[in-house]
Design a protein that fits this description.
single chain, alpha/beta, globular, 2 domains, about 375 residues, Nucleotidyltransferase, domain 5, 14 strands, about 20% strand, 6-stranded mixed sheet
């Protein structure tokens, strides 16, 4: 079985997957790492544990898992920079390189490294693999990843667009090809991972052609607390007003749906407030959906056509109203939403039969994608899954 770890700055999400039986016998989440009373959800059972760091958090998990049945460990790593265009086995040299990439994702990569070190310490004899959010976007062409800045900033400092949510975009695009019963190499797809973090991806012939997140996960669509696209002069003005540290805090943690609505970063709360007549809540929903609409149109133009749109992520899978708003005025692309189907749950085709381009809702499974990548990288060493 493959253990998948997703380490956040104050959390540790885990799943133990049996790929052969398509089963997940163990899963859970530890939050508020750094405290003596960290909440642990283990297979739906809740308790409090001491987790002053990621090592203690992982030790608490390890005591509950059948360690003798684990054949390998897959770790989510957010940023691979230009070094890692594929998933790779973990070794001491890799950890040193990952340290140098931490400035590119200061909110994510240091936490990912903490989880890797904890697992290496407690499971030293198991092979482990790093699976990068950025790897699926390694196929971006220069016209997609370059900013119009002095090119020395790219060649000397690697300032470019990288893209994120790669495992999710890769997984749902493959599932879409299966659903459509067509080779992915023949498809033009737009995948929309919508949640507290949100990104769009143009997937042409099975490869990422363009994506909305950039140098960091801050660029692109409106998110729960992240602003998404801004005029750079807005950032300069904010830095003058508040300083760099507070500006970063504002753009990453106080903007997006939360900032614009003044209500919450949770779409359910924003919808409720909009229904109750809160003007800024309705405006926040309009802005979020409109940005998605524009992104769909842009990517359809970039690919010269469209076979299907895939909604995924917490909001993409569950928010029928957001999907309807985002697809408004896109009939010219051959997209026709079936309102009745849109109200259903789970993996479903929600377009009308006559729709030239299909509209799909596909639940993402990033942990399964990480497990599959771990097996692929390790080959025979992890064949007993």
């Amino acid at each position: 079985m493959i253990l998948v770890l997703n380490s956040g700055s104050s959390s540790l999400k885990f799943q133990l997957l049996n790929l052969e039986q398509n089963a997940v016998p163990f899963r859970g989440l530890i939050e508020r790492i750094g405290t003596k009373d960290a909440p642990l959800n283990f297979n739906g059972e809740h308790s409090q544990i001491r987790a002053l760091n990621h090592r203690e958090a992982f030790e608490a998990i390890a005591q509950k898992l059948p360690l003798e049945r684990i054949t390998a460990v897959g770790h989510r790593v957010v940023h691979g920079g230009e070094h890692f265009k594929n998933s790779v086995p973990i070794n001491p040299q890799l950890l040193e390189t990952l340290e140098t990439l931490s400035p590119l994702a200061p909110l994510h990569n240091p936490a990912n490294l903490e989880g890797i070190r904890a697992a290496l310490e407690l499971l030293p004899n198991l092979p482990m693999v790093a699976v990068f959010d950025t790897a699926f976007h390694a196929t971006l062409p220069p016209k997609s990843y370059l900013y119009a800045l002095p090119h020395a900033l790219y060649t000397e400092h690697q300032i470019r667009r990288y893209g994120f949510h790669g495992t999710s975009h890769q997984y749902v695009s493959k599932q879409a090809a299966k659903h459509l019963e067509r080779p992915i190499e023949q498809l033009k797809l737009i995948t929309l991972h919508l949640g507290n973090g949100a990104s769009a991806c143009a997937v042409q012939n099975g490869a990422s052609l363009d994506t909305s997140m950039g140098f960091t996960p801050l660029e692109g669509l409106v998110m729960g607390t992240r602003s998404g696209d801004l005029d750079p002069s807005v950032v300069l003005k904010l830095a003058q007003l508040y300083g760099l540290e507070q500006t970063s805090e504002l753009l990453n943690k106080k903007s997006g749906l939360l900032g614009l609505s003044g209500v919450s970063n949770d779409l359910r709360d924003v919808h409720s407030s909009a229904d109750a007549g809160v003007e800024w809540a309705e405006r926040a929903l309009e802005v979020m959906a409109y940005r998605i609409t524009k992104q769909i149109g842009a990517y359809a133009a970039a690919m010269g056509g469209l076979d299907a749109i895939i909604f995924t992520g917490g909001a993409g899978e569950n928010d029928a109203d957001l999907r309807a708003r985002a697809l408004k005025n896109l009939e010219f692309l051959g997209l026709e939403l079936d309102a009745e189907k849109n109200a259903t749950r789970g993996m479903v085709e929600i377009s009308k039969i006559r729709s030239r381009a299909k509209i799909l809702v596909i639940p993402t499974d990033e942990e399964r994608m990480i497990a599959l990548e771990t097996v692929r990288v390790l080959g025979a060493r992890a064949d007993n899954v």
